[in-house]
């Protein structure tokens, strides 16, 4: 048990879910409804171009997109492009997370730094990452470093702001108690600050993961850096419309997987926290 939990009284753990299986059935029903909605969307996308409401030349039916997707997954170049996208996404997210956590804890824990950097953060944070594309091209050309520049810049703020809020949410009574027990600064960070800030950190990482994927593909699409975005641009310019839609579908599936993975990691990391335990409470 952390010092924060001791000073706040802790309290009994949340009651486990009842054995009637209602939460499980509810989640199962939600999943089936989601699949039904997806099936309806695919059916509409198949019917609309075939009945002539839109031109199949610009909006091919689902079956043609599926054929193009099958052709893509058998092409080695597709997997190389997918690997390039995931590499840029993962490296950028890692750099942004480490920098955001370290600088966020440092800035929030030192009042002078917090006051000194407040206006700078508020000035830089709203700048769109895509506005840095000319700078990225000027510095790195179409190298993966251009992608990393945009990904890190966009993701960094998601993590930093959440860490700042998390550190400011530390219970002052718990902090004073830790000081009275003679805990060192490092021990206070470990046992008082970190348990309080961790839910905020995980929220920031989850948001940053989605933003990083968007910026990675955007950089590839606009700059021409290696990856799925560049492959989409090639398909569009060569008039391979079904292939273009197939690749866009892959990016959408990647976004879903990234979101599900981030939520799973968040639940596992915060299994001890009330926000997660409350999901299974009666």
Automatic annotation (TrEMBL):
<comment type="similarity">
    <text>Belongs to the binding-protein-dependent transport system permease family.</text>
</comment>
<keyword id="KW-0472">Membrane</keyword>
<feature type="transmembrane region" description="Helical">
    <location>
        <begin position="89"/>
        <end position="111"/>
    </location>
</feature>
<feature type="transmembrane region" description="Helical">
    <location>
        <begin position="207"/>
        <end position="232"/>
    </location>
</feature>
<keyword id="KW-1003">Cell membrane</keyword>
<dbReference type="InterPro" id="IPR000515">
    <property type="entry name" value="MetI-like"/>
</dbReference>
<feature type="domain" description="ABC transmembrane type-1">
    <location>
        <begin position="82"/>
        <end position="266"/>
    </location>
</feature>
<feature type="transmembrane region" description="Helical">
    <location>
        <begin position="244"/>
        <end position="262"/>
    </location>
</feature>
<keyword id="KW-0813">Transport</keyword>
<keyword id="KW-1133">Transmembrane helix</keyword>
<protein>
    <submittedName>
        <fullName>Nitrate ABC transporter permease</fullName>
    </submittedName>
</protein>
<feature type="transmembrane region" description="Helical">
    <location>
        <begin position="29"/>
        <end position="48"/>
    </location>
</feature>
<feature type="region of interest" description="Disordered">
    <location>
        <begin position="1"/>
        <end position="26"/>
    </location>
</feature>
<dbReference type="GO" id="GO:0005886">
    <property type="term" value="C:plasma membrane"/>
</dbReference>
<dbReference type="GO" id="GO:0010438">
    <property type="term" value="P:cellular response to sulfur starvation"/>
</dbReference>
<dbReference type="GO" id="GO:0055085">
    <property type="term" value="P:transmembrane transport"/>
</dbReference>
<keyword id="KW-0812">Transmembrane</keyword>
<dbReference type="InterPro" id="IPR035906">
    <property type="entry name" value="MetI-like_sf"/>
</dbReference>
<dbReference type="Pfam" id="PF00528">
    <property type="entry name" value="BPD_transp_1"/>
</dbReference>
